[in-house]
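the two lines:
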Amino acid sequence: MSADQVTEYMSVLGRQARQASRVIARATTAVKNRALLATAEAIEAAEASLIEANGLDLQAGRDNGLDDAMLDRLALTPAGIRSMVEGLRQVAALADPIGAIRDMKYLPSGIQVGRMRVPLGVIGIIYESRPNVTVEAASLCLKSGNACILRGGSESIHSNRAIAQCIRQGLDAAGLPQEVVQVVETTDRAAVGALITMPEYVDVIVPRGGKGLIERISRDARVPVIKHLDGICHVYVDDRADLNKAEAIALNAKTHRYGVCNAMETLLVHEGVAAQFLPRMAALYGEKGVELRGCPQTCAILPQTIAATEEDWATEYLAPILSIRVVADMDEAMDHINRYSSQHTESIITEDFTRARRFLGEVDSSSVMVNASTRFADGFEYGLGAEIGISTDKLHARGPVGLEGLTSEKYIVHGDGHIRQ
Amino acid sequence: MSADQVTEYMSVLGRQARQASRVIARATTAVKNRALLATAEAIEAAEASLIEANGLDLQAGRDNGLDDAMLDRLALTPAGIRSMVEGLRQVAALADPIGAIRDMKYLPSGIQVGRMRVPLGVIGIIYESRPNVTVEAASLCLKSGNACILRGGSESIHSNRAIAQCIRQGLDAAGLPQEVVQVVETTDRAAVGALITMPEYVDVIVPRGGKGLIERISRDARVPVIKHLDGICHVYVDDRADLNKAEAIALNAKTHRYGVCNAMETLLVHEGVAAQFLPRMAALYGEKGVELRGCPQTCAILPQTIAATEEDWATEYLAPILSIRVVADMDEAMDHINRYSSQHTESIITEDFTRARRFLGEVDSSSVMVNASTRFADGFEYGLGAEIGISTDKLHARGPVGLEGLTSEKYIVHGDGHIRQ
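prediction for all of em together
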């Protein structure tokens, strides 16, 4: 396609999505659930053809030299398909946020005012070559009453087309327009540029992927973006910590999984317990093969530690590397966090009520914890039932974004002929 | 100042605001209220010098040929100063939204998760030459724990400098840094361009003013914008309406004030009651000097009516002009609204429960009403206690934006050594 043709194609998708969004916005919970469950059945029934379509993507991926991690994310296995089906059923089982009314109250004029939860409209989702995201994103948008336009990585195009076919069957079965969920069927990169610059058709963009992609999209978008950039998460071990809890959490937050945004990247330790705590941790990290990079005080306690540079404090390693800094007190810890944190997730380990209370109030991150591993910062662990991503923005949605993050609230007013005096 | 100097000046303001935002974010309610009340006292005490400074602006305005409406908005009278002082005391009396925790609950893992309301950080406000907005915006940002940078119209520069002096006295008296509220003291237009492109220092922009200004800011901003564009509001009179209520509301919504965003611009009338209702309304509108522009059916009922053009349906008159359309039923009314509304405020007049319920659910505007005048769409009328503006965006805040709209929520987690399994 030429650039003009891509723009034209995308604006057709946009127009159709806008129209379909009006239908899905007022669809009943029962109808939306029927579409989700029928999609689950269609995917189950299409297992063989999904794996066949995915085979084309995998073959092309290998021919184009994709690395093993990318091929792994691209692959659709029978187990992966079962988990997609399971995910659809879970989303069907979630409470429907749409139409919920809260805080309806009488005002002095006699009118009653409250708020009603409503869909955002049309959501554009841009993601990497992970076919399971196609199903996940479609199901969350649908349940929250939104139409969506899904643009997955070009390496997964055959898989996504096959999945889109199943979703269309599900929408059909529920009597919903097929345009409620549209998969971009061109691999042309100009499609992304068009998708993020159609405010007349698209209400919000959710990019999922590497930091570079997300920064580029945020810079160029003419539509609001719910985005996730870095996860430079901190654990601060206070001198009033229970060091057994601190040990379990500092180990879990770093080593439970390395490549995730809610893993700890920097450990801050009160100088009053550093000499006691750090050698214990160094032994445990050593067993796991975690490389340590420390401030001068850390290096004095753990002589084999590499000296951390300024850059270390500002780095999301996503790897078995940890930077460690000894601080004089909680204020110094919070200053460090204020300066280097990506405002994702920070945790204090302390038994002191007043410090816990201050840390919770004063640390400006999307998740702030006391005596818990940063790894809990996750939509499922928070009981949202699902997660479209984790927002590091301050407006609209902070932290894990579930169904509610794909909605907003309008005001509703009940009167009985009331006029303004 | 050269363009470089303006950029440098603005980034100094930005850096200072970011720093001050950390202090105001954790200030107690008592300290914030002390600052508000001390500012009120400072303004009262400075009445003479405020009026003198304002005199310089008015003189310059007259010399530069400002029209009467602009001079009127620019003028600071003793009564206007009293109402600024009163406003500060009202904001001090409002509940502090910051730190409120909701929905703290145990999850299966044993952690407790809830949400805490927090400030946005630094808010940039861009507005016309209305000195009272300086006080209003400063007080709302301060109470909601945010630092702010205020950029008023250049015609009000002397007034704003004098007001800024009073606000600094108020901040001083409460022991807060003066940089919590900063007024841009250059009239150079490049200051606006700099303010909206410093995401490192400014978290959100609230523009107040004409549509052209707001569109320009939204287009160029590299920071989220809470904005208000058109107010093309509709009243739909159903055939099951109580026509006495309909009459009172249709009159109030159009004629209570003409130049406001929540005034009705289009009246939709069910064909079953049009012949009975429209002549009554035409007489009342005639008395008020409202010009009517109608669809062919309207013109058949009211022969002296001008024929409405396609453009009329899409126009925010802000004037004693009303477009009228007869519709076959509520669905046609909602189709018209979907197509032409600016999603600000729409009201249905009906005694029918099922239609009221459908209208409330299906009309996608920031305020949807039953049997009430669109003029109620207002922060004070909704009980917010204050209003920084009315948002026509869908993300974050829809409709009247009070203190809560200047905040967001973070997640907080309480554990007892919990780690992720």
